[in-house]
């Protein structure tokens, strides 16, 4: 359960940051005002950062009955899913795709594979390691 919660925290961080004016500049998510519209852009950035750090802390401290070395490997997988080859890569390509009229299926697949699938794969890997 801690691994699933950690992945969900990172996904929520991604959504908060994705909605920011410097990213997709969305005012609504699922029909409700986005975090930065309700609390301000500064608090939205900090909320995302807090979720990111808390996800690692939660995974490391709330996982019980598992060898510490396996928990460390799970934290490593979580971090790997976020870095340049994972979630960040998908977000960068997504940002640079804004306004392009010739975005093809392969381009969209790259974005989705790196933004969302990276987290889902991470969850599977953590489950195997923990």
Automatic annotation (TrEMBL):
<dbReference type="InterPro" id="IPR000092">
    <property type="entry name" value="Polyprenyl_synt"/>
</dbReference>
<dbReference type="Pfam" id="PF00348">
    <property type="entry name" value="polyprenyl_synt"/>
</dbReference>
<keyword id="KW-0460">Magnesium</keyword>
<dbReference type="GO" id="GO:0046872">
    <property type="term" value="F:metal ion binding"/>
</dbReference>
<protein>
    <submittedName>
        <fullName>Putative geranylgeranyl diphosphate synthase</fullName>
        <ecNumber>2.5.1.29</ecNumber>
    </submittedName>
</protein>
<dbReference type="GO" id="GO:0005737">
    <property type="term" value="C:cytoplasm"/>
</dbReference>
<keyword id="KW-0479">Metal-binding</keyword>
<comment type="similarity">
    <text>Belongs to the FPP/GGPP synthase family.</text>
</comment>
<dbReference type="InterPro" id="IPR033749">
    <property type="entry name" value="Polyprenyl_synt_CS"/>
</dbReference>
<dbReference type="GO" id="GO:0008299">
    <property type="term" value="P:isoprenoid biosynthetic process"/>
</dbReference>
<dbReference type="GO" id="GO:0004311">
    <property type="term" value="F:geranylgeranyl diphosphate synthase activity"/>
</dbReference>
<dbReference type="InterPro" id="IPR008949">
    <property type="entry name" value="Isoprenoid_synthase_dom_sf"/>
</dbReference>
<keyword id="KW-0808">Transferase</keyword>
């Amino acid at each position: 359960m801690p691994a699933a919660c950690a992945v969900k925290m990172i996904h929520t961080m991604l959504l908060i940051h994705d909605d920011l004016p410097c990213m997709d500049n969305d005012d609504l998510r699922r029909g409700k005002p986005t975090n930065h519209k309700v609390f301000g852009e500064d608090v939205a950035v900090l909320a995302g950062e807090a979720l990111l750090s808390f996800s690692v802390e939660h995974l490391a401290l709330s996982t019980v009955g598992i060898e510490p070395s396996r928990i460390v490997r799970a934290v490593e997988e979580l971090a790997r899913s976020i870095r340049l080859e994972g979630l960040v890569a998908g977000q960068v390509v997504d940002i640079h795709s804004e306004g392009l009229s010739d975005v093809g299926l392969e381009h969209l697949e790259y974005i989705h594979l790196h933004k969302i699938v990276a987290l889902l794969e991470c969850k599977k890997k953590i489950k195997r390691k923990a």
